[in-house]
Structures are given as C-alpha cells and as structure tokens.
Design brief:
mainly alpha; Cyt_c_II; Cytochrome c556; iron ion binding; globular; electron transfer activity; signal; about 200 residues; about 0% strand; 9 helices
Length: about 200
C-alpha cells in the first residue's frame, strides 16, 4: 500500500507545472524548465502502465524514459535555475539558491540514477511481477495536483536510505544491475526529494 501511495505522489511530476505552462504565459527560463518537467512527466506516463502491471514490460520504452531523465538532469537542470528566477508562474522556492549545494546534489543524483536506469532497463521487473520492489511512478495517470517531487521520500530531508548524496550514493553501474522497477523507484525518489524540499506548494 505504501508503494502505491509513493507511486501516486510521483506520477504527478508535472501536473501543476504543465498547467501553468499552458495557461499562464510562462516565458524565458521559467518556460524552459516547465518544458523540461513536462518532458519528464510525459516519459513517466509512458512507463506507468508497465509499472502498474497494466501493460507488458517493454525495455525499449523504459530506456527511452531513462534517456529523457538524463537529458533534463544534472547540469542541464541546474542551469535552468539562475538565481532570482522565481517570478510567477515559477513555484521554485528561494531555498533553492540558499541551499544550492543540496539542489545541485539532487540534480546530479537524478542524472546518475537515470543513467543506471537505462542500463537496468534490460533486466526486467523484479520477480517478473507487476511492481517488483516497487516503483514510485506507477499509480494513477492523473497529473492534476501532485508533483513527482512532491511526496514523502526516503531522500526527502536528508535522512533515510539515500538522504545525503555525500555518503555513499550508488553508482550508475551498480544501479544498472538492479531490476528495472527498483532502479526506476530510486530515480523517482530523487525527484520526490527535490520537489518536496524546493517546490512551493499551492495554497
């Protein structure tokens, strides 16, 4: 049940951002990062049915999603957040710039986990089951009110399995040896941690 709750939190990665992009006239770097989040959200939606056991697992689809995450993570993500770029409709907290090292760490973690996920795609799901060790993004395809980075996470506050990037983050090579759903879950947790800490919630 907890896995499904985590999944539901993660699947909504870009719901708010996409709606803002469509309806609020975002421009410049704010628009660019909303588009990046939308691309990742679209990738999530392509793998969601597989993670829920509603579609046959397709390693090529998972690889393509992983490549999308790689494209928009690491430095590609951080360069979309120049200091002071939190004007409406941006929902970025000022905390991003006062805790830049943590934000940068999470962006880098996502890049590493996405690279590992690409390698893990060919491993299939754990035990051949629907969700194996759990995938955070396999819930409802609705993307209306949550955020892929919005729910609780083992990485959310710097505690738990992967709370501190400086203390033993797994390598992409290690992650590539895991079942695909486990690798996907780990990438999802990075996203959840980032949104939980750095995205302003709607009133």
């Amino acid at each position: 049940m907890m896995k499904r709750t985590m999944i539901l939190a993660a699947i909504a990665v870009t719901g708010t951002a996409v709606a803002a992009l469509a309806h609020s006239g975002a421009t410049g770097v704010v628009k660019d990062r909303m588009e990046a989040m939308k691309a990742m959200g679209d990738a999530v939606k392509t793998v969601t049915p597989m993670m829920r056991g509603e579609a046959e697992y397709d390693a090529d689809v998972m690889r393509e999603a992983a490549r999308t995450f790689q494209e928009h993570s690491g430095e590609a993500m951080t360069e979309l957040f120049p200091e002071g770029s939190n004007q409406a409709p941006s929902e970025a907290k000022d905390l991003i710039w006062s805790d830049w090292e943590r934000f940068e760490d999470l962006a880098r973690q996502l890049e590493v986990h996405a690279e590992g996920l690409e390698g893990a795609a060919g491993n299939g799901l754990a035990g051949g089951g629907n969700m194996g060790t759990g995938s955070m993004m396999g819930g409802s395809s609705g993307m209306g009110s949550g955020s892929m980075m919005g729910g609780s996470s083992m990485m959310g506050s710097g505690s738990g399995m992967m709370g501190d990037a400086a203390t033993g983050m797994m390598s992409a090579e290690d992650i590539a040896q895991m079942p695909a759903d486990a690798a996907f879950n780990m990438a999802s947790q990075v996203c959840s941690a980032c949104h939980s800490r750095f995205r302003a919630e709607d009133d």
